[in-house]
Amino acid sequence: MKGQPMHALSFDVEEFFQVANLRDCFAREEWDEVPSRLDIGMEQILGLLERRGIHATFFFLGWIAERHPKWVRRCVEAGHEVASHGYEHSFLWDIETPEALHRDLERTEDALRAAGAPTPRGFRASTFTLTRSTFWAFDVLIERGYLYDSSIHPIRHPVYGVPEFDPGISRVRRDGGELVEFPVSTWPFLGRNLPMGGGGYFRLLPGWVTRAAVRSLERRGRPVALYLHPWEFDPDQPRQPTSALTRFRHTVGLGRTLARLDRLIERFRFGSMEEVLRSRGDLPPG
Ligand SMILES: [Zn+2]
Fold it and tell me: Nearest-CA neighbor of 222 among 187, 256, 189?
């Protein structure tokens, strides 16, 4: 394992009812009324990482950190990296202004620190909403001292995505400074960047496709950034009255996420986002 290149494993810590896909089923005002199912996924994830002896990055919503500080604390105690997923899963284009994003990030940083984590150095926007129209978010992140971002999805997609963005690790230079962009992984195939870094794709694609994609990116010297959510380890979550396609995307393969991730960890070397960036010299040693 030692000489192998390291890939990044990350989890966006949010409840099943906060997922963009299910927005129409759960109004923001009702979130506090819905019974939490966070423990189910978090127990399995932390258990797996402990058994395998590896670290990962947990991008917490501030809303979650305020209500479930024990999970922030347990992640810190286990040596994982705690990073920011924004306060309440708002899309960046709905946050609208740099001032409002400052407030959102500050509230999240406060919640993470109050739960026992250091000030976060990494950020991932809700639902890859860092696109050309919201590039101003980079300025806010740089101003607040963030060292890296993982919000860009370099694919063609009707809602999000920056298809021409460097799909590997790169530096984003802005007037006020710079930070590192570590996008979730895509696999160049037939001239297009296909998503493979997580979510429904990870659960839908056969395991051998994911492994082939990781090997192919490894050969290009490009570390993979995988992202999963606690609710993806919870096959018994209540089903919602949505369209058949939405339900399929949300629930496909939920029962095999843990086994599939375990097999991937067995074959490849994984660490937190920060560990991968530091090991390559993209961030100064911590
Ligand atoms: Zn999210």
Answer: 187
Going by pLDDT thresholds of 50, 70 and 90, the confidence category of residue 238 is confident
Per-chain residues with Cβ under 5 A from ion ligand 1: 12, 14
What contacts 240, CB < 8 A, 6 or more positions away? Answer: 22, 25, 247, 250
**For residues 119-156, b (16+ Cβ closer than 10 Å) or e, as one string?**
ebbbbbbbbbbbbeebeebbbbbbebebbbbbbbbbbe
Q: Which residues fall within 8 angstroms of residue 29, CB to CB, at 6 or more apart?
A: none
CA of 88 to the centre of ligand 1 (A): 9
In this predicted structure, what is the pLDDT of residue 203? 85
Contact 154, 132 (CB under 8 A): no
More confident residue, 208 or 62: 62
Residue 250's Cα: distance from chain center in Å? Answer: 16
Measure the CA angle with vertex 196, ends 155 and 60; round to 5°.
Answer: 90
Looking at domain 6-279, its CATH class is alpha beta
For residues 222 and 164, what is the distance between their CA atoms, to the nearest angstrom?
A: 17
Q: Positive or negative, the Cα torsion across 145, 147, 150, 151?
A: positive
Mean predicted confidence (pLDDT) in 193-201: 79
> pTM for the full model?
0.95
CB 175: neighbour CB atoms within 10 A? 6
CA 19 to ligand 1 center in whole angstroms = 6
Which phi and psi angles does 58 have, rounded to 5°? -115, 110
**What average pLDDT does this structure show over 260-271?**
95
Beta bridge partners of 148: 122, 180
Task: Tell me, in angstroms, the distance from the centre of ligand 1 to residue 2's CA.
Answer: 32
